[in-house]
Write a structure and sequence with these properties.
Elements: H1 5-14, E1 16-19, H2 25-42, E2 51-52, H3 63-66, E3 72-76, E4 95-100, H4 102-105, H5 107-113, H6 116-124, E5 130-131, E6 135-138, E7 148-151, E8 159-160, E9 164-170, E10 181-183, E11 194-198, E12 207-211, E13 222-224, E14 231-235, E15 240-242, E16 253-260, E17 265-266
Parallel strand pairs: 2-3
Antiparallel strand pairs: 1-14, 3-4, 4-6, 5-16, 6-16, 7-15, 8-17, 9-14, 9-16, 10-13, 10-15, 11-12
């Protein structure tokens, strides 16, 4: 499960790669348990306002989001909160995601992220000096898990030149019913159409979208249904999406990004800046 040279070729050819049984059942259980523990022990309304998250191109940012790169912060589904601003469901069924500093601040996530098997994958993808800028658990909760519209990750985490890879690990089985990934194979060879950048005119709003919306055809997308423990590698420029989760099963995943530092510059316009 180390991404053989053939698999690396497939990744660069298709724009994504699915590697089964990457994490053991024990590792998956540990990450899921730690997620629950983080929510139980770290989320309180004094430090963490109930912040909503909308995925993909609809993304709105605020100060809580903008300063979350080196912290563990909590973002809730739009439909989890009633008119009075209270949660309608328990936290684990209300959260959209937790991010973006799990890989630096939490020992369980750190160990998984910087494990020897992750390093082997990076080597096989011919990343020379990779860095991990951000990480998150995405919970895609039952009934209210929001849609993530078609997007390219380099829109949000831009480097010059673009050399970004998403590592996406299923902590539960992901199906077309509970909101699995969908890809347009080979859509990573045509650059990106837009970028989310820091607003040059000040903090309201903190980020703006620059560039054009591309229109994608539904029939071009291929589902990536995977079992828990699967690693999906996502090229920074491949077009992908996930549908809403209206089922009664959650779709927990852990994801982080790597980018090549050698000969590559992290954009000063990205929402996330080194701290």
């Amino acid at each position: 499960n180390m991404a053989t040279p053939e698999q690396a070729k497939q990744f660069y050819d298709q724009g994504y790669l699915i590697i089964k049984d990457f994490l053991t059942a024990e590792e998956v259980a540990k990450v899921r348990g730690q997620t629950q523990k983080i929510v139980d022990e770290q989320h309180n309304l004094q430090d963490h306002p109930l912040t909503l998250f909308m995925g993909g191109n609809k993304q709105k940012t605020d100060e809580y989001f903008m300063t979350s790169g080196d912290k563990i912060r909590f973002f809730f589904e739009v439909d989890a909160i009633d008119e009075q601003g209270n949660l309608k469901v328990p936290k684990m069924e209300a959260l959209n995601k937790i991010g973006h500093g799990l890989h630096i601040l939490d020992p369980v996530f750190k160990k998984i992220t910087f494990s020897e098997k992750m390093k082997n994958i990076a080597r096989n993808l011919e990343l020379k000096n990779p860095a991990v800028p951000q990480s998150m658990v995405i919970l895609k909760p039952p009934k209210i898990g929001g849609v993530v519209v078609p997007h390219q990750d380099s829109t949000f985490l831009y480097t010059e030149p673009m050399k970004l890879v998403g590592f996406w690990i299923a902590l539960e089985d992901c199906t077309t019913t509970n909101g699995c990934l969908w890809f347009i194979p080979k859509s990573h060879t045509d650059g990106i159409s837009k970028r989310m950048v820091r607003n040059p005119d000040g903090p309201d709003p903190p980020t703006i979208m620059r560039g054009e919306d591309r229109v994608y055809k539904d029939e071009d997308f291929v589902p990536g249904e995977v079992k828990k423990g699967t690693l999906v590698l996502i090229h920074g420029e491949v077009v992908h999406k996930s549908e809403a989760n209206r089922s009664d099963k959650s779709r927990h995943i852990y994801t982080f990004h790597m980018y090549e530092q050698d000969g590559v510059e992290w954009s000063k316009e990205n929402w996330q800046q080194p701290t």
